[in-house]
Amino acid sequence: MRIVKLSKESKENLLADLLKRDPNNYGQYADTVQAIVDDVKARGDEALFEYTEKFDKVKVTKDTIRVTKEEIDEALKQVDPKLMEVMVKSMKNIRAFHEKQKQLSWFDTTPDGTILGQRVTPLDSAGLYVPGGKAAYPSSVLMNIIPAEVAGVNRIVMVTPPGKDGKVNPVTLAAAHIAGATEVYKVGGAQAIAALAFGTESIPKVNKIAGPGNIYVALAKKAVYGHVSIDSIAGPSEIMVLADESANAKFVAADLLSQAEHDELACAILVTTSMKLAEEVSKLTEEFIAGLSRKEILQKSIDNYGYILVADSMDDAVDVVNEIAPEHLEIQTINPFETMTQVRNAGAIFMGEYSSEPLGDYFAGPNHVLPTNGTAKFFSPLGVDAYVKKSSIIYYSKKALKPVSRDIIQFAESEYLTAHANSIRVRFEDDKE
């Protein structure tokens, strides 16, 4: 990995480099995606089936597009029982964490007859996109479905590209089943997002779409936003390790590569105050890559978006962390809890040398669907809040409204909204006082 001395110029160059990975910068695909979305909206199933055959080389019909109970039972038999046990353990941890995020409706009353409050209700339906192709991601299935299930969403729909055999990956399907998916459809790509957003004859529309995908999926989610809610427009994965001289170089190198193996656009950055650590980590990453299965992807990722930044002080190192706002941040310093208090922008923070990023990906419980490309400055991890909506509750008795009626009328008339003022005035015009 390249070692760069942290300076104002090197930080600006790094940020510019990272921005190239932002899905919003892939405008050359936008017209293609929009055409697919518009076509599915206009022609429904007919277009959906055509695109599935074109892109996935699988013929689906209204009778085969939805996964059946028999297919689920078959998938459950094919999954290694030990893996099923692990997924169940993971699911319990994820559910326990997200149960703590649930918010209750609340109401405040006053003696003169006002009731103000907030009613929290789940979305009626949610759609989860699960990538297919190169690999199966049952962990993402659990992370997306379980918060919706905890929130109380009645209809949880999963869409995923079918394999060449026309079936859904058994592990993916098993994860969807145990997590609580109510429907599963064999369709992927931008066409699947359009189906969820607008509905077709086979797939009724949903209120919200969540889940990771390629650039076509990301741009499709952007295109349908407003017709439905979405979780985010996620970019490629990224990890940043903040370390001092106390860090274990082997652990740091291994953790950087844990995210770099996702794809060629994944980003791995170490920022440290120790040149010695920087040099050790640079050497170890090359040694590790040689023995790992996805070495070609790893090498391209590290070559393109792998950096080791050497800072003069921990304050400078923390500043660059807050500027980059990484999706995953590991803090491997002498006192990680103290360091953590200075971090304002990060999707998930892993503290200490035994809290490596894959712990969060698979097992600990916090959600691994996180803001990318600097959006941790204003977005949060996926959670129960993503699957609920809140309604304000307002009640005033006549006794409560009368003392403030003149205030409201004056406020409305100051904005020249006389109908607003009149709706208050008419309620008291027959009063003799």
UniProtKB/TrEMBL annotation:
It comes from the Bacteria. Pfam families: Histidinol_dh. The active site is at 327 (proton acceptor), 328 (proton acceptor). Its cofactor is Zn(2+). Zn(2+) binds at residues 259, 262, 361, 420. Binds 1 zinc ion per subunit. One of its GO terms (cellular component) is cytosol. NAD(+) binds at residues 129, 191, 214. GO terms for biological process: L-histidine biosynthetic process. PROSITE patterns: HISOL_DEHYDROGENASE (PS00611). It catalyses: L-histidinol + 2 NAD(+) + H2O = L-histidine + 2 NADH + 3 H(+). Keywords: Amino-acid biosynthesis, Histidine biosynthesis, Metal-binding, NAD, Oxidoreductase, Zinc. Pathway: Amino-acid biosynthesis; L-histidine biosynthesis; L-histidine from 5-phospho-alpha-D-ribose 1-diphosphate: step 9/9. Gene3D superfamilies: 1.20.5.1300, Nitrogenase molybdenum iron protein domain. GO terms for molecular function: histidinol dehydrogenase activity; NAD binding; zinc ion binding. Its EC number is 1.1.1.23. It is an enzyme of class 1 (oxidoreductase). Belongs to the histidinol dehydrogenase family. Catalyzes the sequential NAD-dependent oxidations of L-histidinol to L-histidinaldehyde and then to L-histidine. This is Histidinol dehydrogenase. It comes from Anthropogastromicrobium aceti. The gene is hisD.
